[in-house]
Backbone:
């Protein structure tokens, strides 16, 4: 007996059908034509629901990740399988060890100096269909540059992996990028990785108590994080104030890129927070620009001193 289940997802209807082993009937020619027409219609309809986005597919038998088009996205299902196959992550839950200032005696009479919290976190926080990365085709090459988030248990916080991969899905090279703590300057798992002209860029976040900053690392090939000069993009922080009001400073930027030059237009603001700790009154603002140039494989600027003075409050 055939049963059909309908599920609505982003204004699209997904149809799943199951057949009992004994009740599959032989279709007539006319019925077959109807089934084929329906299948074709359904395929085209579901394809339109992806809004033209390209997603990676996995060849689990060959431990490959198949990428298409000039750019696209990677879901947890395909990306995690690829990372596991190449020993770049694990699926163990994170464990937090909490040490007490002094030994604690529990109701059962046992004494403990620490406690281990084993939670269902890490990769378990995400569905198989969640996007965990994206990729771009490398100029004048059939290879791709890809960035995937990693929620493995080896590190205290999530990290990002920059990976070069061949057109037939094989790993070429990878480097791991670390944030100050968690990636506070990313809006999701993948939006801090982009293509800038001939360069690829990943934003690295500085994180602290009442502090978040983003630093852009630009590269043409997979390069270790500590070998790249970072470019400061944005920062906000709570700062000391002479009065009782909570004060903050923030800096935002817009970028112009032209071959081997970058021009960043910054806006620096000092202000106070409102009663809900949102952006309140602005006390002062200043606009300035910093020019960066690419030379000998690194990005640099002649305005380091100016940048240091204006952003001394941002670590």
Residues:
């Amino acid at each position: 007996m055939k049963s059909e289940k309908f599920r609505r997802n982003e204004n699209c209807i997904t149809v799943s059908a199951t057949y009992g082993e004994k009740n599959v009937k032989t279709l007539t020619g006319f019925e077959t034509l109807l089934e084929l027409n329906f299948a074709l219609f359904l395929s085209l309809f579901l394809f339109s629901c992806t809004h033209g986005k390209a997603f990676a597919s996995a060849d689990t038998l060959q431990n490959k990740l198949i990428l298409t088009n000039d750019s696209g996205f990677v879901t947890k299902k395909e990306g995690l399988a690829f990372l596991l196959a190449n020993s770049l992550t694990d699926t163990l839950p994170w464990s937090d060890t909490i040490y007490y200032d002094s030994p604690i005696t529990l109701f059962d009479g046992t004494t403990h100096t620490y406690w281990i919290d084993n939670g269902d976190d890490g990769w378990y926080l995400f569905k198989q269909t969640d996007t965990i990365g994206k990729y771009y085709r490398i100029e004048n090459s059939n290879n791709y540059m890809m960035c995937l988030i990693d929620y493995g248990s080896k590190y205290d916080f999530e990290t990002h992996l920059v990976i070069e991969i061949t057109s037939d899905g094989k790993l070429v090279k990878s480097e791991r990028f670390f944030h100050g703590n968690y990636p506070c300057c990313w809006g999701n798992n993948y939006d801090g990785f982009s293509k800038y002209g001939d360069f690829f860029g990943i934003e690295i976040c500085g994180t602290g108590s009442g502090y978040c900053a983003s630093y852009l690392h630009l590269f043409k090939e997979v390069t270790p994080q500590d070998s790249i000069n970072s470019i400061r993009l944005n920062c906000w922080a709570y700062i000391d104030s002479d009065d009782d009001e909570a004060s903050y400073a923030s800096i935002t930027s817009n970028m112009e890129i032209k071959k081997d030059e970058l021009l960043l237009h910054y806006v620096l603001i000092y202000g106070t927070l409102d009663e809900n700790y949102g952006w309140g009154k602005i006390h002062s603002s200043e606009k300035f620009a910093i020019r960066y140039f690419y030379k000998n494989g690194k990005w640099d600027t002649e305005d380091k001193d100016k940048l240091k003075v204006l952003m001394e409050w941002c670590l």
Notes: The chain has three helices and 19 strands.
